[in-house]
Amino acid sequence: MGQALVLVNGVPRMQTIDAAATIYDETYTVPGGGLSSGTPVSLPSGGVYQSKELKVYFEGQFLEPLGVDYSYVGSGTRTQVTFVGDYYEGEKLRFRVEGNPDNIYDQTNVPTATITAGNAIDLPSGEQYYGNELKVYLNGQFMEDVIDWNPSGSGSPYTAIMMTRDVFTTDRIRFRKD
After folding, report:
1. SS3 for 42?
2. Global pTM value
3. Coil, strand, or helix at residue 74?
4. Coil/strand/helix, residue 133
5. Burial (0-12, 13-18, 19+ Cβ within 10 Å), 93
6. To the nearest 10°, the Cα dihedral for 144, 160, 111, 164?
7. Where are the domains of the chain?
8. Cα 134 to the center of its chain, rounded Å
9. Which residues touch 82 (CB under 8 Å, ≥6 apart)?
10. Parallel, antiparallel, or unpaired: how do β-strands 70-72 and 120-122 relate?
11. pLDDT of 122-175, one tens digit each?
């Protein structure tokens, strides 16, 4: 394990990196004529993935899989995705594959009612986390711990967070541990 400086939404952040793991990080530029919703896209340079270890970004926004922003194509070792929505010529999509999909926690919470700032938001599936291993995204944008959210509870391990702003029924909160 080591640490590396990684750009997250254009802001440099230190992240723990498994030195033994291979990291795939490639950018796809949408070709002339654009990309229509549902059209299969192959990962550039022969990239492969299985499931949750694939991260897809559009203009710094962390896209969600499983038919929200894109879908996996096939099963087992995969090479393609399809997108929900159209992309235009020259737009850039970033594909990043890292980690073991069996060890990645990646769940989304869509509130059924407004959650007022400071109220606890439980992690789906009763997941627990320690310190800064949890990454939180609101509508695809990375949320900084202490600034945008705080752990909720009496101490580690934690099972909930508190946002520093209200969260509405139109918002999507994504919890991820790589």
Report:
1. strand
2. 0.79
3. coil
4. helix
5. buried
6. -40
7. 26-97, 105-177
8. 11
9. 37, 38, 39, 40, 41, 70, 71, 73
10. unpaired
11. 999 999 999 889 999 999 999 999 999 999 988 889 999 999 999 999 999 999
